[in-house]
Amino acid sequence: MNRFGLELDPARLPKHVGIIMDGNGRWAKNRRLPRVAGHEKGYRVLKDVIECNREIGVSFISVFTFSTENWTRPESEVNFLMDLARKLAEEYTDTLLKNDIRLMVTGTDEKVPVNLSEKLKAAAARTSHCRAYTLNIVFNYGGRKEIVDAAKVIARKAAETPSILDTLDEESFREYLYHPDIPDLDLMIRTSGEKRISNFLLWEISYSELYFTDKYWPDFEPKDFWLAVSDYQNRMRRFGNIG
Questions:
Q1: Please, what is the end-to-end C-alpha distance for the chain in angstroms?
Q2: Considering the domain boundaries, does residue 19 fall inside one?
Q3: Considering 30, 48, 70, 109, which one is annotated as catalytic?
Q4: How many domains does the chain have?
C-alpha cells in the first residue's frame, strides 16, 4: 500500500507509459494568466511525475512535449517551449543522472535551433548508461511524419537493393523508425478531457490502453499517475484474441 492508499501489482506494471500533457493553456486562461504560465507549471508537474515513478517502477515513460504541428502557435509561446526544453537539458540532467534515469529524445531536428538540438543530444548521451528507467522526451515529433520518413529510407534502399522489399514486415519496418528500441505503448494517458491521440507515437500506440482524465496537466498530481496505472492493471488486454 502506498502513500495514497493504492496498491499496485509489480508483476503487472505497464512497461511503457505515454503521456499527452494537455491543457496547459486552458489552465492558465482560467486563472487569467498568460499561456506560458501553464507551460511553466506543467514543467514542474512533469518533474513530480518523474520523481513519482521511482516508487512505481515503470521502465519506460514517453511524454509529448512539442509536436510538429505546434510550430503554428504564436512565436512567443514557441520560443518559451524551446526555452523549457533547453532548461531541461541544461538544469535537469544532473538530477536524472543522480536518479539513474536515462534520457531519450524522439523527434526531428527540423526547425529546432541548432544549439538546442545539440544540448538535447548531449544530455541524452550523458545519461545513456543509466538503468533505473527511461524518460523519452517526444519533441518536435509527428507520428505520420516518422512513418513517412521511415518509408523514404526504405524506398532509397530498395532502389539500390530491390530484394529488401521481399522480406519487409512489421518487425523489419520498425528498424527504420527514429528509435527502433522504443517498446510498444502499454498505456497512454491524456489529460484535459480531450479524447484523441494527436499523432503521438502512432506505430507504438496500436494496442495501447487509453486513459483519459478531465484534469488539466498543471493540476495532474503523482496520485493521478498512480490511479492511471492502477486502472491499467484492471484491464484485460486481448491483442485481437478472445482473452
A1: 29
A2: yes
A3: 70
A4: 1
